[in-house]
Structure formats: C-alpha cells, structure tokens
Amino acid sequence: MTTHERVLVTGGTGMTGRRVTDLLKQRGVDTRVGSRSGVPPFEWHDTATWDPVLEGVTGVYLCYHPDLAFPGAAEAVAAFAARAAGHGVRRAVLLSGRGEDGALAAERAVRDAFPATTLARCSVFAQNYSESFFTDQVRAGTTLLPVPDIAEPFIDLDDLAEVAVAALTGDGHAGRTYDLTGPRSLTFAEAAAVLSEASGRAVGHRSVTPEEYVRAAVEGGFPGELAQGLVEIFQEILDGRNTEPTDDVALVLGRPAGDFADYARRAARTGVWG
Predict the structure, then answer these.
(1) What is the pLDDT of residues 46-91, one digit of tens each?
(2) CB neighbours of 130 closer than 8 A, spacing ≥ 6?
(3) Does the model's pTM come out above 0.90?
(4) How far is 197 from 77, CA to CA, in rounded Å?
(5) Mean pLDDT, range 20-40, rounded to an integer
(6) Distances from the Cα of 81 to the Cα of 18, 33, 75, angstroms
(7) Which residue in 20, 10, 2 sits closest to 163, CA to CA?
(8) What does residue 47 show for φ and ψ, rounded to 5 degrees?
(9) Helix, strand or coil for residue 131?
(10) Residue 252 neighbours by CB under 8 Å, 6+ apart
(11) Is the peptide bond before 245 cis (omega within 30 degrees of 0)?
C-alpha cells in the first residue's frame, strides 16, 4: 500500500464498517470513517456531506444502513458511487445481501455508476447473535424468526472484513462478485445448540408469526418500521435459496472461512451473553 492511498469506510462505526476500519488501520492504510460523527461528517441522505468526505479518497467501502433492500437505498448508494467515480476513486466494495431482490437492484445501479465495484454478497451474519437483533434473545434463552427453520451458512464478519480490505487495497478484484458464506450450513435450531454448548446456557429456537415477531422486536426496543422491514427480508431470503455454502472466502483469502462454532466460542469468552 502506497502512502497516498486513502480509504473511506461508510458505516464506519457499524458492525461491518468498524471491522473494515480497524483492519485497514492495522495495515497502515489512511482511513476515513464515514458517519454522522466523523470528520468530516457523512450522511447518506444529505448530499451536501458527500463531496467533503470524498476529498482525496482512492477507495470506498459502501455500507448502507439498515439494508440495501429498504426503500431509497439503491438510489442513494448509486448516486454516491457516481459521485465517488467523479472524484477519481479507483476502488469500491459494496456490501450486499445474498439473494435479496432489493439488493440486486442496488448492485445493478451501483455497477452502472461505478463498473469496477466489487460486490461482497453476504449470508446471515454470525455476529447477529452477539451484536444485533438476536443478542437479547440468546440471553433470554430462545431465538425467534418469522419463518420456518431453514439452514443458513452464517458468515463471520471478520472474514467479510478481510475480503473487503483485500479488494480495497489490492488488484484483481475490480468488477468481481463474491458470495461470502461460512464453510457449512446450520439450521437456526442447530445454531442455537452450538450457542448453548459455547455459552454454557440453554438456548433454543422457535418459529413465530410475523405479528409475534414484530411485537417481540418492538418490546425489545426496535422501531416498528425496522422490525417490519426485517420480517420482509427474512421472508424473502430465508426460504432455502441461500443454503448452499460457497468457497469465495477461501478464494480471496487463501484459507477456509471461519466456522460458526469458532465464532460462538470467541463471543462467549467476551461475556456478551452473561
């Protein structure tokens, strides 16, 4: 990495962005965090913040919160990608959802604006159990989903971050599409059993109605609109379309993807589940 490189990480304080940021900094890359609290600040829906945050940037990690499938996401991310291209940005990585129709629309729009964008399509994050909507449910002893139980090859976000950094700092990734998964698929009930073994506490899994899921999520502090949006995404992608693992993590990193059980043991050691 040459000293004149600078990478912008949008969503740089979030689950994926902070890992990408930390890894870039560990490797000596000049890194700018794109967030409302960043310097300069960045906001997806405030275009006045775009030019200052892109100044001098050579690579950008595109992470739209809460999800590319939400209304307005494709338009915002594509417009920002076009602005980045106009600023001379050479490399871009888009965090995308595996098998989401809304995410596919965003991918096409971003690629139209910035053809060299690397697509990092992810399956369900393992870290959702320790850093997101599953965390309190694990503590309470039962994870909930508004769909029948299905197998999913959970992706460890540390692997995602390594793939993103490889694409942001090295050659050979421009225009590539990577479907990032763990090395094996587990049903959510099987994942709960792995969490039980790792944490030493009983964790089960239960399928519920969409109404029950939204009610439980709102009671747990999630905004109703976000909870309903999650239901729609779960119903779309958790139908078996993403069950098969891929070798793309190994293709990029030259090593196997991290296993869900290894993630669970690491998370348990932090005490996150009490």
Answers:
(1) 999 999 999 999 999 999 988 888 889 999 999 999 999 999 999 9
(2) 138, 267, 270, 272, 273
(3) yes
(4) 40
(5) 96
(6) 20, 16, 10
(7) 20
(8) -65, -15
(9) helix
(10) 162, 163, 166, 167, 173, 178
(11) no
Contacts 24+ apart (CB under 8 A), 260-263: 260/126, 260/154, 260/156, 260/182, 260/184, 260/186, 260/191, 260/194, 261/194, 261/197, 261/198, 262/156, 263/126, 263/127, 263/154, 263/156
- For residues 64 and 15, give the distance between their C-alpha atoms in angstroms, rounded to a whole number: 12
The answer to whether the beta carbons of residues 168 and 59 sit under 8 Å apart is yes
Q: Which amino acid is at 76?
A: A
Cis peptide before 210 (omega within 30 of 0): no
Query: Torsions phi, psi of 134, nearest 5?
Result: -85, -15
DSSP lists the bridge partners of residue 152 as: 186
Tokens at 6, concatenated: 């600078």
DSSP-based three-state secondary structure for 188: helix
